[in-house]
Amino acid sequence: GENVEQHPSTLSVQEGDSAVIKCTYSDSASNYFPWYKQELGKGPQLIIDIRSNVGEKKDQRIAVTLNKTAKHFSLHITETQPEDSAVYFCAAPRSNDYKLSFGAGTTVTVRA
Amino acid sequence: DAGVIQSPRHEVTEMGQEVTLRCKPISGHNSLFWYRQTMMRGLELLIYFNNNVPIDDSGMPEDRFSAKMPNASFSTLKIQPSEPRDSAVYFCASKPRGGKNIQYFGAGTRLSVL
Questions:
Q1: Which of the listed residues A88, B84, B86, B113 has the most CB atoms within 10 Å of its CB?
Q2: Cβ distance B46 to B58 under 8 Å?
Q3: B102 shares contact with chain A (CB less than 8 Å)
Q4: Is A96 helix (H, G, I), strand (E, B) or coil?
Q5: What's the whole-number mean pLDDT along residues A84-104?
């Protein structure tokens, strides 16, 4: 099955700086990699995703990069703002695709 | 659309009591997932339904846990009898037919078993 590792577990950045979260996966057949953001008291919400045939995808201040050879993908948040403070999860599908293996999460704190 | 709706938002009960968590998926979605979230174990998939049929319940921890989906717009997760170690946040998520595996999560039910 798929095994997803996520680093770091916590990340504190100054407002306006960038934040980078990295994940590795084990199943080379995985072809879709979503990122979820979970704010306090809420459920995880999809913020961006990438398919395996694309190396990078951007959406305003967030971007995701994928290195299929190395089996790792990263989330980049630029010009961080206080509202970016949350727990972020990476995920990858398991062999049957309907399951998602989630990373352990990264707690991001943006200091004003 | 109101999104995935879970109830109750919070549940406090005593050990040994029966607990029922409820979920209304997004209209038109045909896949439903129940997850449990704890600090120690993160997000764990408990059970997956497709077209109201349980496909994979390998994540259900014990026979004390059961889940049903009587129709496309309602699912329940029941714990009987509940134990303190069941304390966690339980999420329901739904996914539309086909396409990418994008799961939409509800706000969760925070369960405390005393």
A1: A88
A2: no
A3: yes
A4: coil
A5: 88
What residues in B contact A23, CB-CB < 8 Å?
A: none
Backbone angles phi, psi at B25, to 5 degrees: -75, 170
Q: Which residue has the higher pLDDT, B101 or B42?
A: B42
Q: Identify any residues that bridge with B33 across adjacent strands, giving them in sequence order.
A: B48, B93
Chain A residues with CB within 8 Å of chain B CB: 32, 34, 36, 41-46, 49, 51, 89, 93, 97-100, 102-105
Supply the mean pLDDT for chain B: 94
Check the CA dihedral B14-B18-B24-B29 and report its sign: positive
In the predicted model, is pLDDT for residue A97 greater than 70? no
Q: What is the mean pLDDT of residues A21-26?
A: 96
Nearest-CB residue to B102 (from A34, A41, A104): A34
- Among the partner residues A51, A99, A103, nearest to B45 by beta-carbon distance: A99
**Does residue A82 have a cis peptide bond before it, meaning omega lies within 30 degrees of 0?**
no
Residue of B nearest to A6 (CA): B42
Token pair, residue B63, equals: 């026979």
Share of chain A above pLDDT 70, in %: 96
